[in-house]
Specification:
about 20% strand, globular, disordered N terminus, two-stranded antiparallel ribbon
């Protein structure tokens, strides 16, 4: 389902006209999708076509920062996205911010450099699909899935550059394997592990907060998300480093309550 939280995001700062920040923070699906916010069918914003069209707007960029936090998605869309990135003239640096699972891990392999964090992970497994029909249909589907899986294994093996044998990769893919950042580094699935803390983007935080508070139904889940946003932004941006976790939480809750009162008053 398309929503404000289900799309690829492309950002370029005015003071960095040659550097593109690209966020793959959703599952990877192409084709048509129903946009519930607009009440109409439109092109998916998480597929290869949308990706290619958007990236074409940044022909002159020389460096792409690719940020991934995705459970995966459709194989054909992910393979195409990876190849589109390989074809681009810019240097691509991939940051696995959370998880790079399934086809999202294949997309990561397209980068010139892959950086993970100590708590980020990759997951690799065999290709899968839905199939119905007779025995011949099932056998055909199985043979096709084997080929798809084999292409993913080749992608991993090429990227690992001898640090992990094709046989070992095949076994990990066969059983389905979660890899920590340390394991990825050892096996060649990434180039380094960053120890730097991820900065909180206040503009994004406030934008997300606005979307939650102005929604027609502010349910418990959204309130919890909003509180968490304020915890993160307040803890990093407004409080001294020596404050205790309890003090940070209380300050964040206070900021949240004040904000909500302002919103209610504004909308009366």
């Amino acid at each position: 389902m398309n929503s404000i939280f289900n799309h690829f995001e492309f950002k370029m700062e005015a003071d960095k006209p040659k550097e593109l920040d690209l966020y793959l923070y959703s599952e990877v699906y192409g084709g048509l999708d129903f946009n519930w916010a607009k009440g109409k069918v439109e092109e998916s914003k998480t597929g290869a076509k949308y990706f290619a069209d958007k990236l074409d707007e940044y022909k002159n960029c020389e460096h792409i920062n690719l940020y991934i936090n995705s459970l995966g998605g459709q194989i054909k869309e992910g393979v195409a996205i990876g190849n589109i990135l390989k074809r681009h003239k810019a240097k691509v640096t991939c940051y696995v911010d959370g998880w790079a699972c399934s086809i999202a891990s294949v997309i990561a392999m397209a980068a010139d450099e892959i950086i993970m964090y100590s708590n980020s992970m990759m997951m690799i497994h065999q290709a899968s699909c839905y199939c119905e029909g007779n025995a011949d249909d099932m056998r055909t589907a199985a043979a096709e899935l084997d080929k798809m899986t084999d292409t993913a294994i080749t992608t991993y093996a090429d990227r690992c550059n001898g640090k992990c044998s094709r046989e070992e990769i095949s076994e990990m893919v066969k059983v389905g394997t979660w890899l920590t950042a340390a394991e990825c580094l050892k096996k060649g699935f990434c180039d380094s592990i960053s120890t730097a803390e991820q900065p909180v983007d206040m503009a994004t935080m406030l934008s997300d907060t606005k979307q939650y508070t102005m929604s027609s139904a502010l349910d418990r889940e959204n309130v919890d998300k909003l509180i968490e946003l304020y915890k993160k932004s307040t803890a990093q941006q407004a409080l001294p480093a020596k404050k205790t976790e309890e003090e940070k939480t209380n300050a964040a809750m206070s900021a949240f309550e004040k904000f909500m009162k302002m919103e209610v008053k504004k909308n009366d």
